[in-house]
Amino acid sequence: MRRMSAKPNRDAPASPPRSPWTPREAELLAITLRLLQQHGYDGLTVEAVATEAKSSKATVYKRWPTKADLAVAAFIEGTRVPAIAPRTGSLRGDLLAVGASACRDAREHAGTMRAVLTEVARNPAMNAAIQDEFVHPRKLIMDEILAAAVQRGEVDAAVVINDEMFDLMPGYLAFRAVISGQPPTAETVRVLVDDVLMPALTGSTRPASADTVRADSR
How many Å apart are CA 99 and CA 95, to the nearest integer? Predict the structure, then answer.
């Protein structure tokens, strides 16, 4: 559990997420991501990645010592998010914007998520990497969103947020895409925000009509 602080980080300008990879490494990861989506983790081979990239297995292994390292890097690179939270001017707008991004990830990368999550359950090192590189950055964004809401007076600074609240939206959207086979939509995000998150965080039962940020349902 954590208590919210009214100190959002507003110093750095919003910018696209920076990739730690060289163009050639990014190309190898993009190929890996596509093969993960097509064949799953068990069907992925370093040889197939190297062949399609017109590279050698030694080159791939030099950068990523195991297939698990390669798969995690490809997944994280393919779902990288901006380091700065959305700034729509309201809690509801920010939540809808985050939901739109999570919704797109869940729809576009359902196959990859399914492949990686299956392996994460039996690979502690892979699980730790996912927590550090995928889960933690998204929780930091939610921290910033809620801190901004406290500063605007939308959320009481005394409110203590459970980790379950942070996990609710991305967890449910991933469940819809990966487990239930029902890709999440704009309406999925709206219901989560208006009927679950906003009432829980603010006590409000009516959405702010001025906010028009919606998840992209295409």
Answer: 6
Judge contact between 90 and 154, C-beta under 8 A.
Answer: yes
pLDDT band for 10, please (50, 70, 90 cuts).
very low
Arithmetic mean of pLDDT, 76-85: 80
What are the structural domains, with CATH classification, of the chain? Answer: 23-77 (1.10.10.60), 82-202 (1.10.357.10)
CA 168 vs CA 10, 41, 196, 210, 212: distances in Å: 25, 26, 9, 24, 22
Question: What is the reported pTM?
Answer: 0.74
Asked whether the predicted pLDDT for residue 3 surpasses 80, the reply is no
Confidence of residue 100 (pLDDT cuts 50, 70, 90): very high
Instruction: For 155-183, write each residue's pLDDT tens digit.
Output: 987 776 777 777 888 888 888 888 877 88
Residues written for the chain: 218
Mapped to the 3 state alphabet, what secondary structure does the chain carry? CEECCCCCCCCCCCCCCCCCCCHHHHHHHHHHHHHHHHHHHHHCCHHHHHHHCCCCHHHHHHHCCCHHHHHHHHHHHHCCCCCCCCCCCCHHHHHHHHHHHHHHHHHHCHHHHHHHHHHHCCCHHHHHHHHHHHHHHHHHHHHHHHHHHHHHCCCCCCCEECHHHHHHHHHHHHHHHHCCCCCCCHHHHHHHHHHHHHHHHHCCCCCCCCCCCCCCCC
Asked whether 95 and 195 are in contact (CB, 8 A), the reply is no
